[in-house]
Amino acid sequence: MRAVALLLALGLAGLPVLAGPALAEDAPGRISVIGRASREVAPDFATVEIAVESRGQTPAAALDQNSAAARKVAELAGEFGIAGPDLATAAVSLRPASKTVRESNGQMRDVPDGYQASNAVSVRVRDLKRLGALMRRLLDGGADRIGGVAFGLSDPGQTENAVRADAVRDGKRQAEILAEAAGTRLGRLESLVSPPRETAPAPMHARTFAKAAPGGLAVPIEPGTLTVEAAVEVTYQVAP
How far is Cα 60 from Cα 21, in angstroms, rounded to an integer? Predict the structure, then answer.
């Protein structure tokens, strides 16, 4: 038995060893990075929410008065060429109203005081130079409240695609720097993920808030710029 075992051992010693570490040496290395890019672009439209509020002793009276005020807002917007999809109802509400009174014993309490109706209209303005004048006109025409002004792009896809391409180039640049520092060079692109699995930066849209200017002046509005951001995850193989 010892002779047979010795012969088998000697025979196996002459065979090539196909162990795991030898296979691992053949596997290519990889470099994975997150490429990022951003651009500042000027907006080409603004959306502003205009609201009118009315009070009445009955629900019907409050709503009828409010509806008339909302129609006036729509008419004034039409004077600036705003109609169709650029003018939309954002919210309508009707609720009981109350007021605080002082009783004979000095205590304060709320008592019913008719009804309050409100109608909010979303207005999209494409001529940004006229935005301030429009807001002043709407205030003069009966608008009670101006919501946040949101700026945006009518066709954001073109800009977003350009920023994504910049992010891919940034990812390749980072990978090349790492490969050079490691004394090697990049091989083929193995994977490209957009947005990255870890996080997904979304395009950012600037917002501003407006207040009525005294003396009938146009409301001062500065569109500024929008920051469009993108990120991609790229993985390259290391060249052999």
Answer: 83
